[in-house]
Design goal:
single chain; alpha/beta; eight-stranded mixed beta sheet; binds nicotinamide-adenine-dinucleotide
């Protein structure tokens, strides 16, 4: 039996050992999914604390319950380790390491490259390697294939390589790793067949495409689509605000069109590990081909200018209340980039807080999901959350709603508040009764 058929056999009878490298937001649910589908799984991470926590039955990602982790590890089919020697035991290796941007918005492939370096020492014939980290078209072919070939192995015969992007939407109650269609692009037909078989054994639907480049570009297009449309919503907000027209009402009206319109919402700027960063993977690669992705750059300009816009609106609102930004106490509601989750990566709240401080204000934050701020890629605000209480809220000259956590949708919190700058339209549906605070859209 050749390598492909033998791997397909092991996938069908669930004896193929699946390695997942990088046990973060993407890798941990994926490792648990393969375990649930009946495969023996080894999760690899450079962080020993993660492996230890998982073996204690704990989850370090809030929306993945500890119960799910402890049940999976109790079944004994899954282990988590920092011992990369065990890569040789795996029949399929799925790479889910970070792909951030460098200081000049250039792709930082160092995590992928160090993973490939770890693998290169332990590669063997018969393995399937799938990259899941978001990246520019060409990465899979350029970074993953050569180390195998350097060992005299031939892709499609001795080993198999594919790209399959992750479409995780953390905290989404309807869509999760198992029921989100999985795009898979193999380097060659044999790679496509084994990668499709592996994912087909674990997820509801596999969408096979003709190459890893198509799969890589599809992922980027999905996120660029969001970044551009959010920028458009932000631009509409700023333009309509000048005209005294409420953008939120406009969007609600426009979305009643049953075709050809899809609502996107303005906010304080982009956050999360994906939408603010991924588009620049394509602009960077585009430059190599002498072409310029103008929409992406423009959307980036608009979205990154939003924290400054919010602070400007805050300063003007304070001014109308006879106060200057300098010396005012400002409470930012929400540090995570998205409602009801604890992920603060690239959150615009950090920049809002820094800009408030630059303007001489005393900034604090309230976020029930993040009791103490953590140093980020570019920011370290060094604060702890204040209590989510009416008494605390009343101590500040102005509140800036940055994240629409449900915890903030309690009218009594705002009883003694004078001014709220709202970037999420969180306040509009609240019945604050007469004498409530002035609400300023930003
Ligand atoms: N978070 C999301 O919602 C999401 C959605 C779609 C795609 N992605 C993409 O998936 C990839 C991973 O993102 P994430 O959010 O899971 O990141 P993460 O930071 O949550 O997790 C990455 C994990 O990899 C580990 N790691 C780092 N270097 C390693 C190495 N050399 N070997 C082994 N482990 C290593 C880290 O310790 C961490 O546990 C990125 O490319 C990201 O763009 C993320």
């Amino acid at each position: 039996m050749d390598q492909k058929d033998s791997l397909l056999d092991r996938i069908t009878n669930r004896t193929a050992r699946v390695g997942v490298i990088g046990l973060g937001y993407v890798g941990l649910p994926l490792a648990l999914l393969f375990e649930e589908a009946g495969f023996p799984v080894i999760g690899f991470d450079v962080d020993p604390a993660k492996a230890e926590a998982l073996h204690r039955g704990e989850s370090y990602i809030r929306h993945i319950g500890a119960e799910k982790v402890s049940q999976a590890f109790a079944r004994g089919r899954i282990v988590a380790t920092t011992d990369f020697d065990r890569l040789g035991e795996c029949d399929a290796v799925v790479i889910c390491v970070p792909t951030p941007l460098g200081r000049h918005r250039e792709p930082d492939l160092s995590f992928i490259r160090s993973t490939v370096a770890e693998m290169a020492q332990r590669l063997r014939a018969g393995q399937l390697v799938v990259l899941e980290s978001t990246t520019y078209p060409g990465t899979t072919r350029e970074e993953l294939v050569p180390p195998f070939e350097a060992r005299g192995l031939e892709c499609g015969t001795d080993f198999f390589v594919a790209f399959s992007p992750e479409r995780e939407d953390p905290g989404n109650p309807r869509f999760h790793t198992q029921n989100i269609p999985k795009v898979v692009g193999g380097i060659d037909p044999a790679s496509q067949e084994v990668a499709t078989a592996l994912y087909g054994a674990a997820v509801a639907e596999v969408v096979a495409v003709s190459s890893p480049e198509v799969a890589e570009a599809a992922k980027l297009f999905e996120n660029i689509f969001r970044a551009v449309n959010i920028a458009l919503a932000n631009e509409m907000k700023m333009v309509l605000d000048r005209m005294g027209v409420n953008v939120w009402e406009v969007i609600e009206a426009a979305r009643t069109k049953p075709f050809g319109f899809m609502p996107f919402y303005p906010g304080p700027g982009l956050g999360g590990h994906c939408i603010p960063l991924d588009p620049f993977y394509l602009t960077w690669k585009a430059a190599e081909y002498g072409t310029w992705a103008r929409f992406i750059e423009l959307a980036g300009d608009i979205n990154t200018s939003m924290p400054a816009y919010v602070v400007d609106r805050t300063a003007k609102a304070l001014n109308r209340h006879g106060k200057s930004l300098k010396g005012s106490r400002v409470l930012v509601l929400g540090l995570s980039y998205k409602a009801n989750i604890d992920d603060d990566r690239e959150s615009p709240s950090f920049e809002i807080i820094e800009k408030l401080r630059e303007g001489g204000a005393t900034a604090a934050y309230c976020d029930p999901y993040i009791p103490v701020s953590r140093p980020g890629r570019e920011h370290d605000i060094g604060l702890a959350s204040v209590a989510c209480s009416g008494e605390e809220f009343a101590r500040h000259d102005v509140l800036v709603v940055a994240t629409a956590h449900d915890d903030f949708r309690v009218p009594s919190l705002y009883r003694d508040v004078r001014l709220v700058v709202d970037t999420r339209n969180l306040m509009a549906p609240l019945d604050l009764g007469p004498g409530g605070p002035e609400i300023v859209q930003a």
